[in-house]
TrEMBL record:
Keyword Lipid metabolism: yes
Source species taxonomy: Bacteria, Bacillati, Bacillota, Bacilli, Lactobacillales
Protein's recorded name: diphosphomevalonate decarboxylase
Documented EC number(s): 4.1.1.33
Family, per entry: Belongs to the diphosphomevalonate decarboxylase family.
Enzyme class: lyase
InterPro entries: GHMP_kinase_C_sf, Mev_decarb, Mev_diP_decarb, MVD-like_N, Mvd1_C, Ribosomal_Su5_D2-typ_SF, Ribsml_uS5_D2-typ_fold_subgr
Record-linked SUPFAM superfamilies: GHMP Kinase, C-terminal domain, Ribosomal protein S5 domain 2-like
Keyword Lipid biosynthesis: yes
Amino acid sequence: MYNGKARAYTNIALIKYWGKKDKELILPMNNSLSLTLDAFYTETSVSFSKAYTEDTFSLDGVLQDEKATAKISHFLDLARKKAGLPYFAHVESQNFVPTAAGLASSASGLAALAGACNEALQLGLSDKELSQLARRGSGSACRSIFGGFVEWEKGYSDTTSYAQVVPSNHWEDELAMIFILINDQQKDVSSRDGMERTVATSDFYDGWLDAVARDIQTAKQAIANKDFQALGEVTEANGLKMHATTLAATPPFTYWSPDSLKAMNKVRQIRQNGLACYFTMDAGPNVKVLCQKKDVASILTALQEEFTEEQLTCAYAGQGLKSLEMEVSK
Ligand code: DP6
């Protein structure tokens, strides 16, 4: 039996990853830049054993179906190949999220699985190699290997596409991100399907690629200067540009729901009233608000004029991947 366990935190992109140039290797069309957060994380343990006759995957105590297990198996194959070990595995993942709905992320999940495999199979991977491996599970997972501000260099091959820390002199410790949970009944378009459709059909996709290269530079300059307004403005603008590409896809789609718009408008209003805060959204209706730690209490109070306390969760900068002791050694 080969056992390993690891914890990874989720990350939210300030400059988004949106589009792949290689689906199998998960090579992105553009660089992206994120902030790793402390409030949401995944702990995953993996055991490889000669005695197992198939891969199994349990998430939050529930054994997962064939489709979810196939994605994990595909990833395990990469780890097995690296180790030269043919055994099946059992994967057990637990998502730690402050409130139930819609905040679990594939980024923390696949990063934790990469870490657990590294431990179990004693692969001895460096952080850079862990980032490359996690990327193969889910693109955004390559950024969750690291804490704080992280840039994913798109690269051009398996070994040249990985994330690394953006030097920030601990500025992220002064920042926060408030999550506004929006419940809506719409059927989801996964980020994987959404970006694929956009790359293939959106008239705005070329414009996105031009803009994102500039936005990355602006964001990095803002981090170097600890310029919150500049970072916030480029974060909000970049998110809007990503979402604009979906409206020009065929068939068109959007992740926005009426309450997402309500949240965006509220953030703009709070800003007009003098508190610096900026929104971003990913492949779902929830709205995330980048702000400074010193303003969190006032911004939460203002957001509570429109949203319930249960809808609001505050996160701060989080750490990179951590390996954990297995509690029970079978
Ligand atoms: C909108 O990393 O979930 O959150 O690589 O297909 O697994 P796959 O996609 P995923 O996409 C994340 C897209 C995003 C933006 C971002 O996190 O950069």
